[in-house]
User: What shape does this take?
Amino acid sequence: MHGLFKWSRKWWPGVVPLVVFWAIAAWTSTVPLETDLAARSTAALKDTVLDKRRIAVAGRDVSFAADAFSEDGRRGAVASVEAVPGVRLVNDETRLIPEAKPFVWSAERDVVKVTLGGSAPLPASKGKLLEAARAGIGGVEVVDQMNLSRGAPPRFDNAALLLIDQIGKLKDGKITLSDTKVSLSGMARDLGGREAIAAALKNLPEGFSVAANEIKAPPYIFQAYKDPVAVTLTLTGYVPDNNVHAALATTATRKFFSEKVVDNLKASVGAPSGFAKAVMPALGALSRLSTGTLVVSDREVKLSGDAFYDAAAAQIRAGLGKDFPQGWQFKADISVKPAAAPVDATVCQQLFSELLSKGRIRFETGRATIDPDSAGLLDRLIETALRCPTANIEIAGHTDGDGEDSSNQALSEKRAQAVIDYLVKAGLPADRFTPMGYGSTQPVASNDSDEGRARNRRIDFVVR
Amino acid sequence: MAFLATFHWGWLLASLLLGLAMGWIAVVHRGKGVSKRTSRWLAVVAAALVAVAVARVIPGRPGYWLDLGLTMFALYLAGCAAGSWLRDWALSRSMPT
Assistant: This one.
């Protein structure tokens, strides 16, 4: 042992080459060592969920910065790096992502753009939500403005995915999830969309509830356009069901005696109550116009167009709103068609015959009350009578062959008088018209068939 | 240390061999050795450096270099001790008493 001390005094010269070795070793090994440690630290963190992970190695010391999603996860990640062989010190620069209170997540749609905002709990759930939005809502741009935060309620992902499905049913609007409360606002894309969303919200995961649902349904639109040039009545938009559809089509053919009815109506839910009761009289008013458009949007009825003469315009303006169910509004923009050029008596007779060959003035069965469906035809007859102010006109009532002659005679006279009363109310001078009743004495068709009898029940306008 | 040994085994082996050689020579070397006083100082310095390394006071690359240097130095000393002892043993066998 004593020898070892003695000899050790003479060991120093070897230190010189040792220092040289050391310098070379330090010079060549530092960077490979750091690279190796960085690679192995990264590998050790492979299975931990972290955001903004950054690893820097100086010598054998690792600086490790990351955003963790839980305190356990953070400590676990630091421990994994510390456990990497060769690592001397870990400079722990990790932090927890901020906690959101309340935890708010939102999806906003602006027709062709969907913006996802607020907080998401994990990068994986953020990715899942974005993917769902892109896949579920075709043809829209998906913008990601989500931050990562702690404090999400349990089953957040399921709830958010369900809400993303709903944003697809909106035209525009916003869905907000604040902790476990869902608020919705905006406008549904289709009729029935609002109802579909309300039904889907019943499937929200346990614990979630709807705080406010202010989704509006798109307006329920029904439109009718009377085109005097093409001689058509075009019906578009929605009707509540097939029964109302059939009833509307029948009414339209009765009221529009000369026009062809083009029916493009679709049945859909979501009609305002009293739809049929409001639309039927509105169609009657449209039938009295020379050209016009009827737009029914939810409970608002807008009628615009040209009446045949002043009194008709006034009657339409005053009369229509009265028939409507409660809560319905009526807006009329009725002008009067410019008066047509006067014609002589012969032409007038031709025009009368032409009109009455297309349609007949109808009465209630066995009575002298004019059916409101004939208002359109009467307006056209009045307009014609105005064009030949000097002609005197015989209003001839006829009945079919059923019943007793005397009662038929009386009925035909009363009906002729009822038509004259109508004409006078419209502003024509009473002295131009003479009522005549012919009973069933002048049939134009056989009384043996229903069709023939219908043709025989008529009012003729005869210029004298 | 185990990591340093596997990563730098070449350099460490070189230090050990260098020590072995130096120890082998030192036994018959006639030159002047360091004085007792200096060697005590050197021992203190070495102990201080080891303490610093163990306490991990020096951060980053210099810390790593210190660890590397001390490891190499330790192996060098071990080599010297083994070399000197071997030489002494060889001499005592060849020399008749």
About this structure: DSSP finds four helices and no strands in chain B. Helices of chain B lie at 2-7, 9-26, 36-55, 60-94. The radius of gyration of chain B is 16 Å.
